[in-house]
Write a structure and sequence with these properties.
The structure is a single chain. The chain has about 100 residues and is α+β, with helices and mostly antiparallel strands. It has a single domain, classed as Electron Transport, Fmn-binding Protein, Chain A (Pnp Oxidase, Chain A, Roll). The chain has three helices and five strands; from the N terminus they run αβαββββα. The strands form two sheets. The protein has a three-stranded antiparallel β-sheet. The protein has a two-stranded antiparallel sheet with strand order 2-3. A hairpin with a 2-residue loop joins strand 4 and strand 5. The protein is globular and about 35 Å long. The model has no long low-confidence stretch (mean pLDDT about 90).
Amino acid sequence: MILNSRKFTVNVLRSGERELAGKLGKSAINHPDKLTDVGFDLGANGCPILHNALAWVACEVHHTAEAGDSTLIIAEVVDTGMPGEGQALTMVEAGFRHAG
């Protein structure tokens, strides 16, 4: 989706939001309804900004490069927001591991 649209927004989830992270981490192709029951608004770039996010960063893709079985994305930050306060969910807390 990022490669086709050339834009994306990173939402920083709150500590304790492991279940939401797992839900949103699923493939949109296989789970097109994954945003059901998740409060969000569309940002200026058309990407979702979660109501409960601590912060968000909207980006536009400028360059991509193949990196083995992954794609490296070079993007420009075009907008940011920090609507919440608190601690961010970490990979350690969530129990996730990078699969790439």
